[in-house]
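User: Protein folding is very new to me. Would you mind checking the protein record under this note? It all follows right here:
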Amino acid sequence: MPSLPPEIIVDILSRLPVKSLCRFRCVSKPWRTLISDPHFSKMHLTRTQNHPHNERLLLMADDSLYTVEYNESSSENVAIAVELDIPCVKSPNAILGSCDGLLLVAAGLADTCFLLNPSTRESIELPNSPFGAESCDNFSIYGFGYDSSIDDYKVVKICFDDDDEAVCSKGIVSVYSLRANSWRRIEDSPFCHSVNDLSPPGVLLNGALHWLVWSHRGSDILGVIACLDLVDEKFRDVPPPNLDESFAQHTLGVLGGCLYMLVSTTFDCDGCDYDVFVMKEYGVRESWTKFTITVPQIIAEPLCFPKNGEIMWKNGEQITLYNPDEDTSRDVAIHGFPNLYEAGMHVESLVSPNNSNGIDTIAASQILARMGTQPKEA
């Protein structure tokens, strides 16, 4: 290694798996400082985040968080769930968002949230937002994403009174800045977010968070997709596809870099039919396209869309992977996991929930300068 130019060493390290880099922090103090540097973390994220093997399935059950070790090329169709030991996060019960390898997780009985990196086991507890509904009968929805204009991660909380008269009133919106470690109140949401009882978190795409909502248009109440831009922190709406079914039965997500809406059409003993609407051109109603998938099992709900093109479904104590191109499905048994409760895809990264708070980056920058290279920011 001493014979290699410093920039080659950095280039090699920036392409390695997170698990290896976490071990390599013990090689020397310079390597530990380098691998912990935010600039290096962003270089690594840029070079690895689109690699399908860098994407992991996360499961949550019994107040525990699990990561799934699964080899797509294996013919055994068996996955291993490994419980994550994150001492500071007690009793996690919901995944509220994911961005660049960081998770927003709710934990405990109180309204307590954590930002954590499951790959490095780093975490911080967020302070409670001082902005919210005065009534004790209130509910909140969340979103989490990255503001590229100021290199900051933001948590969005929208709080509503949960009563018959106020359920469609404007929500109180506050934004937590990881860099500032504080909450700010922004404009109230002009939408009714109580589309269903689940109150799913915002879907992150193109630097904005998206929710299925109701919108008052004169005397009419229409179903739209609300959009909160994380840069200017303004609400807008995105046109949904033309549908006749109730908005409450739909699921919003991201598929191949596009918004999608999943609609259950039939459910019987022969299996499930779903219509999948994909917005090919963001913000253009005419670009919504539809395809239908049929899954032969009676399955409770879809989980996520991995980058390999398969669709992942919840199916008892196992998962089912459906390939829409080949119209085939296969079951994957999960070992070491008690009961499937909640799932999502997670990108492995070195991004730290502490780095934006000014952790010792000067020493790392000096080391990078001495090595003859300074990684560019993503």
Observations:
- The two ends are 27 Å apart (CA to CA).
